[in-house]
């Protein structure tokens, strides 16, 4: 066996470079297209030196907040439909801990990311070192153990030869459709520098092809039998359809059998908006059209979705006789006593279609998708009418402007606050898989950091498209440092910042259930200033100071003009272009679904809470 002597860090980087991936279109690309890094003691000399040696093969991008750069890695993975994996590394202690939130985002959304936090000395000779947390009862524990709760695979490399056993598992998890999620390799700084004679085979070029497991024939037969007896079947398309590249397969199945289609948050933009079988997005942030059909459906076929509460309206939007699920992960497929078909979305849909034969849903049910969606479209049209409320544009109007000026190669993003409801419920897709709404973890700040990662990814696959991220003032203030990272690195995208003076959507939740306005909108927050003029944030000045182009807008017409110019600048100048507009704080797109939150019995919203719980209890166990 031929070997080469390398430090553990050198071996890890050399292995990263050797890994390749097959994209959805069949072309080959690096599995790990780059590394986001902030160096400090714990990774600068070990991993940092190794990355420097491969700077031409594996680009290293300088981040400015560890959470932000790890979120950029997550955004990269989503933009490539889980076929490429961003890497992020930090020093020990607070730098490592900053990435835990990003690991949570990846875990909740089933997205691959490789995190390489520095760790304290295995040898322990200099203990306690700077930024080390000591545990009185467990000498083996470090702050990196916090990652265990949000990792799909976790390992601490305490000897350099352990890489031989763990790296195949790293690749497995990052490319497995069922187990996909964040991988964390904690790297003690002394072990990073230790040398070992590694076999050259470890660094052989490998092309990873995401497996497409086929379903059990008996499960398919049972699902087909139930669907063929359905009078009102409904197809729900989730993120698994996107990651399988099975959108057209799903549409073909729906067309062949007259089955209306809806989309989850992760499945948004899989179906062309004006398709006659498209009932709209489902759930709390979805559409009244899809929710109406879901309430009436007797069989729901949910494909590639983990059935999160915003999709199911806390399990009150569905009332089927049978729930049939298709999912690569058995964990998700068996939820709520479903008739489970486990396998790749595309392969399972192919087999279902072949077995359904001449089955076709009743024509009146098939037609109901377009009929109900037409009502929803009319509702959204009215919300988009350029009539300002109290002189301010609404979120729906701003989204309408961006939607009208976007093309099929463009990509739109958001993550938290009120904007997910506007994008999920109101956006009209004219391209396939062109939306990323991070509403699994709903992480404030993902909007900007994730957009950096998406812009990096899509500059290769969609060079003529624009990434646009929409966010509120709260998310901007939460995490904005990666605007400078993107400006410095030369990655352009458009950010539309809607300033409504606080955490407006949480204020709506608070007061809508009978609570008193408190600590959400700035007017309801405590301040000990003696003057009456509290400071306002100048988002325009701040973004400009971070190297962005800035285009303020005073009204809806100004938003359209600013957004047009921002798109041009983002491409021409290769930096973020930020549109800033003040928006109305209490105008929203409502789908009319219920969401369970704990409402104390003394608040006026408690009777509604009890009614929702009564509906939920009827729907939480389906007959299979």
List keywords for this structure.
624 residues; alpha/beta; Rossmann fold; six-stranded parallel beta sheet; 24 helices; 38% helix; 17% strand; globular
- The radius of gyration is 25 Å
Total beta-strand segments = 23
Compute the average pLDDT.
95
Largest sheet: 6 strands, parallel
Which stretches are poorly predicted, pLDDT < 50 over at least 5 residues? none
**How far from one another are the termini?**
55 Å
Describe the structure.
With 624 residues, the protein is α/β, with parallel strands linked by helices. It has 3 domains: 3-208, Rossmann fold; 217-366, Rossmann fold, CATH 3.40.50.1220; 385-582, Thiamin diphosphate (ThDP)-binding fold, Pyr/PP domains (Rossmann fold, 3-Layer(aba) Sandwich). Helix content is 38%, strand content 17%. The strands form 5 sheets. The chain has a 6-stranded parallel β-sheet, with helices on both faces. The protein has a 6-stranded parallel β-sheet with strand order 14-13-12-15-16-17. A 6-stranded parallel β-sheet has the order 19-18-20-21-23-22, with helices on both faces. Strand 15, helix 12 and strand 16 form a beta-alpha-beta unit. The model has no long low-confidence stretch (mean pLDDT 95). InterPro entries: DHS-like_NAD/FAD-binding_dom, Myo_inos_IolD, THDP-binding, Thiamin_PyroP_enz_cen_dom, Thiamin_PyroP_enz_TPP-bd_dom, TPP_enz, TPP_enzyme_TPP-bd. Belongs to the TPP enzyme family.
């Amino acid at each position: 066996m031929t070997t080469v002597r390398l430090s553990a860090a050198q071996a890890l980087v050399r292995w990263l470079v050797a890994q390749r991936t097959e994209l959805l279109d069949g072309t080959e690309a690096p599995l790990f297209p780059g590394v986001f890094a902030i160096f400090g003691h714990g990774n600068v000399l070990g991993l940092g030196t190794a990355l420097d040696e491969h700077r031409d093969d594996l680009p290293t991008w300088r981040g400015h907040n560890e959470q932000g750069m790890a979120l950029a890695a997550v955004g990269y993975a989503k933009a490539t439909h889980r076929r490429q994996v961003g890497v992020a590394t930090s020093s020990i202690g607070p730098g490592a801990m900053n990435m835990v939130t990003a690991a949570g985002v990846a875990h909740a959304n089933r997205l691959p990311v490789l995190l390489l936090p520095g760790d304290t000395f295995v040898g322990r000779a200099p203990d306690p070192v700077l930024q080390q947390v000591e545990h009185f009862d467990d000498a083996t524990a470090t702050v990196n153990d916090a990652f265990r709760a949000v990792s799909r695979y976790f390992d601490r490399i305490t000897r350099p030869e352990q890489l031989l056993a763990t790296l195949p598992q790293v690749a497995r998890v990052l490319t497995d459709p069922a187990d996909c999620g964040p991988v964390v390799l904690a790297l003690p700084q002394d072990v990073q520098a230790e040398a070992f004679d590694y076999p050259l085979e470890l660094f052989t070029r490998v092309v990873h092809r995401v497996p497409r497991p086929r379903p059990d024939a008996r499960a398919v037969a049972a699902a087909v039998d139930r669907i063929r007896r359905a009078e009102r079947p409904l197809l729900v398309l989730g993120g698994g359809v996107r990651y399988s590249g099975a959108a057209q397969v799903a549409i073909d199945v729906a067309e062949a059998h007259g089955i209306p289609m809806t989309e989850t948050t992760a499945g948004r933009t899989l179906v062309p908006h004006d398709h006659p079988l498209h009932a709209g997005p489902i759930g709390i942030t979805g559409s009244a059209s899809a929710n109406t059909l879901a309430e009436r459906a007797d069989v729901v076929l949910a494909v590639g979705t983990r059935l999160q509460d915003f999709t199911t309206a806390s399990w009150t939007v569905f009332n089927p006789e049978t729930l049939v699920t298709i999912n690569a992960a058995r964990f998700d497929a068996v939820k709520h006593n479903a008739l489970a078909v486990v396998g790749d979305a595309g392969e399972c849909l192919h087999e279902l279609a072949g077995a359904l034969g001449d089955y076709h849903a009743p024509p009146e049910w098939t037609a109901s998708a377009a009929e109900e969606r037409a009502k929803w479209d009319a509702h959204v049209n009215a919300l988009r009418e350029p009539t300002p409320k109290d002189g301010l544009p609404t979120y729906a109007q701003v989204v309408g402007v961006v939607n009208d000026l976007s093309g099929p190669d463009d990509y739109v993003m958001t993550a938290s606050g009120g904007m997910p409801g506007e994008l999920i419920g109101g956006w009209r897709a004219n391209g396939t898989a062109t939306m990323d709404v991070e509403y699994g973890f709903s992480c404030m700040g993902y909007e900007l950091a994730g957009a950096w990662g998406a812009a990096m990814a899509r500059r290769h696959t969609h060079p003529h498209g624009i990434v646009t991220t929409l966010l509120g003032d709260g998310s901007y203030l939460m995490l904005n440092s990666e605007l400078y990272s993107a400006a410095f690195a030369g990655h352009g995208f458009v950010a539309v910042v809607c300033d409504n003076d606080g955490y407006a959507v949480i204020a709506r939740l608070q007061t809508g259930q009978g609570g008193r306005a408190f600590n959400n909108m700035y007017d309801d927050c405590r301040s000990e200033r003696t003057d009456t003029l509290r400071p306002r944030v100048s988002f325009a000045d701040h973004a400009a100071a971070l190297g962005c182009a800035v285009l303020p807008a005073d009204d809806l017409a100004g938003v359209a003009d600013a957004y047009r110019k921002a798109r041009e600048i983002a491409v021409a100048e290769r930096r973020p272009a930020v549109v800033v507009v003040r928006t109305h704080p209490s105008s929203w797109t409502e789908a009319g679904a219920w969401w369970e939150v704990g409402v104390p019995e003394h608040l006026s919203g408690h009777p509604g809470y009890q009614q929702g719980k009564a509906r939920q209890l009827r729907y939480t166990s389906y007959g299979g």
